[in-house]
Structure to design on (728 residues):
């Protein structure tokens, strides 16, 4: 039988940062991660089934909302685009349609900044100059400028000296230019004694007595993730659940029998961070002549493929004085072929423009596409249904695709916010004649998100939050949730920096709980030193 | 660090398809991304496009691939396509169409639109079939991508996807206009964020 002080479920931002601090504090820590472990030497530039792009990625279709996430050691930090802005201060005052404060009083931008600063040092995160902005980002900036708007290079965790602008980030970075958890917190946690078990998928948590839990897992086949090849359990004093906002509520729901009643907010209030994608097909002559852009003779843009995901955001609509749901950001984005083009729609009459002859023609202009990524304030409409028998979803294919239990029906507040953001994109691109713009279809998989949030959220009001402001699960001392599910609302910016800062902030509280359970642990406030393979 | 090596995909027996089932699935894939006919007697491909489409790119290889999770069911789906094409009042005209591939492109398109629409309770299966047929064209997941890029006539080439370097990795050494293209938001702080 295995016993440790703390089990950490999942190894993304929340899991890795928690594991590091608990191990540094002197606790024995085991990280259970459902996905495989890959590093720079294993990542591949390939869409082939079974290459890193399908081994480390996860697409869970729901009813009205599909979630894209990671499935590997390092979690979303391995597949992400590393855009790392901080959240504008007004977000912390959001009230949503419930018209109640959604964030804990203790958390404001000011109180979170010291924790953001720590993340910035550890990864590191920095701001970028225009010569580090890809053509796609530059084009978006130039069009915003033409429409009388500002545009900001996004702070990121990419070392642009090492980056080759390959845009294969979703398959893992072969250059270690992208600062993932594999390069800092995870090796730091291991150095401090933590063990990491890849291909171990947690199924449920059971309460043993007043201060011990048992975490049950299955071992997953390294190729066919539908197959389990073993099972076991680990006993511990503290559990940190960090499986991501698409998974954490599912495994907590399945644990209800062994834990006792769960807070009402577990599996409710899911937010997709208000995401929606528009595709612009750019008129090269127009942007060349009007904006004076030149990539090379005779070509102004044609550079959809080049770069490193979203690097420029339009922030003029993040006005603190504006009403909730009227504030949004629009980032330029890249998505690779496959899942990144199938949802693009021609907008042709009769609908279903995502396939057929018109779609093929649209694809022939793929190099001239510019993807626009809207981040509005949604209204936390997502609800998880009863959990599947095992795992986070019913897995359909060997890797990558599953069918989950999330239902999402956007309210008018959210739909109107998307319409406002769509109108902004048309104002900047269509009206001056820079190209045609169509939204991704919602017919096929509903809305979709790469930023799942809020399905097990912090807050002061027990009626609408599952966790207190230390991230402890209400009514279940010793269980902490430290991942995107704890973030209470959509953010209007990419969330990882905030998930990481909240994990930094939660760490001393988790150590305190270990101490109260007799573990000789002390929070040290250290940061990992850089590791590179 | 105990990293795993790249394991091979599980090799199961590939599904066997009759000539007629292959024809129906090719016609389905050709409806998703249409192509030119492979020869004079090619009646699975409708031939509404002048350039190669999903079938040419290897749609059947993708659909039969065990990684998809649908390979077990595709024979039955092929039969269903033919049945629906024959159904009175359905997409085909009972006296003419004997199979899905007998339908003209517009009729095929209408039936696929119906099968993948939200109104169809069984749309999940059809969406997956459509998704994998689509991916054959735009990402060819049955083959290493660097190898795909050496073939003219694949979707990735038609889309203008760039070529990798000799080592099979993509690099874009020049990637920026390298000049200020907009004023940043006036409230931007020293870290590049809004307050
Ligand atoms: C393509 C893409 C691009 C993105 N780009 C950006 C970006 O530029 N900037 C940004 O801020 N954010 C980005 N994100 C989002 C970012 O990746 C997530 O917000 C972030 O990783 C969430 O962190 P987390 O700690 O909540 O969980 P995750 O990072 O998702 O980690 C959860 C981990 O738990 C594991 N797990 C799940 N279930 C179980 C289980 N039952 N047992 C054991 N382990 C389990 C998962 O495999 C995963 O490794 C991107 C996401 C995607 C998909």
């Amino acid at each position: 039988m295995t016993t440790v002080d703390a089990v950490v479920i999942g190894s993304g931002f929340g899991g890795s940062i928690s594991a590091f601090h608990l191990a540094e504090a002197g606790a024995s820590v085991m990280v259970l991660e459902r996905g495989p472990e890959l590093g720079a030497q294993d990542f591949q530039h390939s869409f082939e089934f079974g290459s890193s792009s399908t081994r480390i990625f996860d697409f869970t279709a729901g009813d009205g909302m599909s979630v894209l996430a990671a499935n590997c050691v390092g979690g979303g930090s391995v597949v992400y685009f590393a855009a790392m802005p901080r959240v504008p201060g007004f977000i912390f005052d959001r009230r949503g349609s419930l018209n109640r404060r959604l964030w804990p009083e203790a958390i404001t931008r000011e109180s979170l900044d010291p924790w953001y600063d720590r993340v910035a040092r550890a990864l590191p995160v920095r701001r970028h100059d225009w010569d580090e902005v890809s053509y796609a980002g530059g084009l978006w900036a130039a069009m915003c400028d033409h429409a009388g708007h500002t545009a900001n290079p996004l702070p990121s965790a990419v070392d642009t000296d090492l980056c080759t602008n390959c845009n294969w980030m979703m398959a893992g970075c072969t250059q270690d230019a992208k600062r993932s958890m594999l390069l800092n917190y995870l090796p730091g946690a291991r150095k401090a004694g933590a063990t990491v078990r890849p291909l171990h998928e947690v199924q449920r948590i059971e309460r043993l007595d007043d201060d011990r839990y048992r975490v049950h897992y299955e071992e997953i086949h390294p190729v066919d993730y539908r197959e389990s090849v073993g099972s076991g359990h680990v006993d511990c004093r503290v559990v940190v659940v960090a499986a991501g906002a698409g998974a954490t509520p599912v495994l907590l729901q399945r644990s209800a029998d062994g834990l006792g009643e769960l807070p009402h907010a577990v599996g409710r209030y899911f937010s997709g961070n208000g995401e929606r994608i528009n595709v612009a097909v750019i008129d090269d002559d127009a942007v060349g002549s009007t904006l004076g852009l030149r990539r090379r003779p005779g070509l102004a843009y044609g550079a959809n493929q080049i770069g490193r995901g979203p690097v420029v955001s339009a922030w003029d609509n993040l006005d603190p004085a504006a009403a909730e749901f009227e504030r949004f950001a629009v980032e330029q984005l890249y998505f690779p072929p496959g899942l990144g083009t199938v949802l693009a729609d021609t907008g042709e009459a009769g609908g279903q423009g995502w396939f057929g002859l018109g779609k093929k023609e649209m694809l022939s202009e793929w190099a001239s596409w510019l993807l626009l990524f809207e981040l509005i304030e949604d209204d936390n409409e997502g609800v998880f249904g009863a959990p599947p028998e095992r795992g986070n979803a019913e897995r359909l294919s060997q890797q990558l695709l599953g069918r989950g239990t999330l239902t999402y029906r956007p309210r008018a507040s959210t739909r109107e916010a998307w319409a406002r953001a769509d109108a902004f994109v048309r104002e900047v691109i269509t009206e001056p004649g820079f190209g045609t713009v169509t939204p991704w279809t919602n017919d096929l998989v509903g809305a979709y998100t790469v930023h799942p949030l809020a399905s097990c959220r912090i807050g002061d009001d027990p009626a609408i939050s599952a966790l207190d402001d230390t991230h402890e699960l209400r009514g279940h001392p010793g269980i902490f949730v430290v991942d995107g599910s704890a973030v209470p609302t959509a953010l209007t910016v990419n969330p990882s920096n905030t998930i990481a800062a909240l994990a930094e902030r939660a760490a001393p509280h988790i150590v305190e709980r270990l101490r109260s359970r007799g573990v000789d642990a002390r929070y040290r406030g250290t940061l990992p030193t850089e590791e590179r393979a | 660090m105990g990293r795993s090596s790249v394991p091979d995909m599980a090799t199961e027996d590939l599904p066997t398809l009759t000539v007629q089932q292959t024809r129906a699935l090719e016609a389905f894939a050709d409806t998703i991304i249409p192509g030119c006919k492979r020869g004079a007697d090619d009646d699975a491909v409708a031939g509404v496009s002048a350039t190669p489409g999903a079938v040419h790119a290897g749609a059947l290889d993708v659909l039969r691939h065990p990684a998809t999770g649908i390979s077990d069911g595709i024979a039955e789906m092929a039969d269903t396509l033919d049945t629906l094409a024959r159904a009175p009042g359905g997409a085909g005209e009972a006296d003419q169409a004997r199979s899905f591939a007998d339908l003209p492109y517009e009729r095929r398109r209408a039936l696929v639109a119906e099968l993948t629409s939200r109104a169809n309770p069984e749309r999940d299966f059809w969406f997956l079939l459509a998704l994998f047929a689509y991916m054959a064209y735009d990402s060819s997941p049955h083959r290493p991508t660097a190898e795909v890029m050496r073939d003219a006539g694949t979707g990735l080439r038609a889309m203008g996807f760039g070529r990798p370097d000799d080592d099979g990795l993509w690099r874009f050494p020049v990637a920026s206009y390298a000049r200020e293209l907009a004023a940043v938001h006036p409230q931007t702080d020293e870290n590049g964020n809004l307050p």
